[in-house]
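Section 5: illustrative case.
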């Protein structure tokens, strides 16, 4: 017999064993990367003075944005009063906490001296956006933990207030994360108001995608309740709408960079359009991350769960590479070409090391393992108010 009941839900022990093995394998890969990092220090990474931010930074951004997106989708029920969405709130918040913790682990291993984080408290610098990023996300994690605790204990009278605080905190932390890049005048590709705004849109997209996957996994072996079905259908339609908005944003971002030919901004855009990151951009970010899921969702009208699952997976892969492209492309244009060690193309180069890739995979393994543990030991299905 391959099934059992726990927390009023049907558990497929064989299926869960496969997921557990996958999570364990990814965590082991991450531990191998951690071991090499502890032996070699920051030299285990391929970042250097001219390109100080690599795939670990982009992975942290991906996790942090996913966290906010899940909170945004959850808030539709507890903040904005859409009753159908209340059934997904507890699971979405649990996953938001897990995503943020996974992001903290990844960025903690990117820092040369992780223990120096204590100076964020001992020696604050409110004029620095990156200080606000650490502070806001730390507070945000605390708010999410309080919200989840209230949900688990059935204290629904206070959940709405906590959800509102989480919604405000998520938008503030996420837009501030965009400002860490957008306020850098030295990097024209990042500088400007676009990133702090568009990162909220991509957060909502990632939240929709993850909620669809969570609900599909939860009800893979039993009939989905009608209210959850309506919520998933509505989420799929919101998902498609936001993808259309994102493609509109992306079009004008490209056009403004090409037409304006601003030094630094134009060069970085050419790296994406026809340079070393062209495949990542066209094949993974645009095609896999936007076009394919948009076509799938529009063709099904958001009513096919299987189609929505494929679109969600495709989008999350594309969004991961969108973060990577954003972080890396902005740095490959040298600030001082006459003194920086540039290649024949006049650009800097960066390829993640095996250690960086291992830690990235370990972050996803940790995320999966923590979700499986939460799903097993908590009742993540919303109870009646």
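Designed sequence:
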């Amino acid at each position: 017999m391959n099934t059992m009941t726990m927390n009023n839900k049907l558990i497929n022990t064989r299926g869960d064993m496969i997921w557990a093995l996958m999570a364990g394998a990814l965590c082991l890969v991450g531990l191998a990367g951690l071991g090499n990092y502890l032996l070699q220090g920051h030299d285990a990474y391929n970042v250097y003075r001219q390109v100080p931010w690599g795939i670990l930074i982009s992975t942290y951004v991906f996790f942090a944005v996913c966290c906010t997106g899940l909170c945004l989708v959850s808030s539709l029920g507890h903040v904005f009063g859409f009753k159908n969405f209340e059934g997904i709130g507890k699971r979405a918040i649990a996953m938001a906490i897990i995503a943020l913790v996974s992001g903290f682990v990844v960025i903690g291993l990117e820092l040369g001296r992780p223990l120096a984080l204590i100076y964020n408290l001992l020696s604050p610098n409110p004029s620095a956006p990156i200080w606000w990023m650490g502070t806001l996300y730390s507070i945000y994690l605390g708010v999410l933990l309080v919200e989840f605790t209230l949900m688990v204990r059935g204290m629904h009278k206070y959940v709405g207030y906590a959800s509102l605080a989480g919604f405000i905190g998520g938008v503030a932390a996420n837009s501030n994360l965009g400002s860490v890049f957008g306020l850098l005048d030295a990097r024209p590709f990042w500088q400007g108001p676009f990133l702090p705004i568009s990162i909220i849109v991509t957060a909502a997209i990632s939240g929709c995608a993850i909620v669809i996957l969570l609900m599909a996994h939860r009800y893979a072996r039993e009939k989905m309740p009608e209210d959850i079905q309506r919520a998933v259908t509505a989420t799929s339609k919101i998902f498609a709408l936001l993808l259309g908005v994102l493609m509109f944003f992306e079009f004008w971002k490209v056009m403004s960079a090409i037409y304006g030919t601003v030094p630094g901004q134009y060069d970085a855009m050419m790296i994406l359009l026809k340079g070393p990151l062209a495949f990542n951009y066209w094949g993974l970010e645009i095609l896999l991350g936007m076009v394919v899921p948009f076509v799938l969702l529009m063709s099904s009208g958001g009513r096919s769960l299987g189609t929505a699952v494929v679109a969600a997976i495709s989008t999350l892969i594309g969004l991961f590479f969108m973060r990577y492209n954003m972080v890396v492309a902005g740095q490959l244009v040298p600030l001082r070409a006459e003194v920086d060690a540039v290649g024949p193309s006049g650009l800097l180069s960066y390829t993640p090391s095996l250690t960086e890739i291992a830690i990235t995979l370990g972050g996803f393994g940790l995320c999966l393992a923590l979700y499986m543990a939460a799903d097993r030991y908590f009742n993540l299905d919303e109870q009646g108010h």
